[in-house]
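Page 42, continued from yesterday. The earlier attempt failed because a stray header line got pasted into the input along with the sequence. Redoing it now with the clean sequence only.
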Amino acid sequence: MGKTSFTSCPSESNWFSHFGLGAESRIGFASEANKPLHIKIVVKVLNMIKAEADRQPSIVANELYKVGAAMTAGQAGSLRGPEIFMLDLAGIREHIVLGRNGVMPDKPLDLGTDLFDAPHVHLALIGKFKGENGVREHLVPVASESLSGLQTRWWIEKLIEVRASEGHTSGPAFGRADGSIAPTAEYDDVLHTFLKEVQAENNDLILETDDVVKNYRFFRSFRKSAEGRARAAGLDSDMQNTMNRWKKVENARGRRPKFNMVDHYSTARDLMPITWRYSYVQ
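This time it went through. Structure tokens are written below.
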């Protein structure tokens, strides 16, 4: 295939593009990956958002509650920023009653414990493509509340309430009042505001030398935080792969997803012993 250029800018020429690739291969580059947030910081920021929302008019409070719900979904579901914004409002509403009256088992982290009726809430993600069997939504059941006090059900139900007050019962879960999906940058700005407040308290949670804006974003911070918590709790890497099994359906682009046969026919509820435990240790 030919390549067409619509500019005479020298830095857009074929020669310069090859020069850039050659320079990078010889010089290398330094990546600036997002850092994880300690779970104490996540819970503290969520409490700060609640308190601030109580002091603000409803139009501002609604946006704060959305940011809090997005943080919670990212942490509980081990989701990256783009995946957080794939949450489907109609799917969440449809399954919100499931697990509301669940009963907590005595030893939930012990292998073999029946978690089918444990308190849980479903995160419903929707993608651009359908799997061969017509999958439209990808459900990830997570614990209603985690060991650290992450109140996932409270935040998801508050998200439903906020979106209903804006006149929306379907569409993107994290959308604006006009129905359009919210950009990640807006949520990052709110996150940075509260992280700077935590940093200013000088409580060693965020060091004074830490560049909050550069190091912490929705894109990777909550995914990395969730992975770190899971490793600290002794959960193996297979659990992380199971938390992201829905993504294989999207990557298949209409073809049969490449699951093992046992995974291909399993349902989200059947995977609760993994997804629920993973979110519970957060």
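Notes: The chain has one domain: 33-280.
Reminder to self: strip header lines before submitting.
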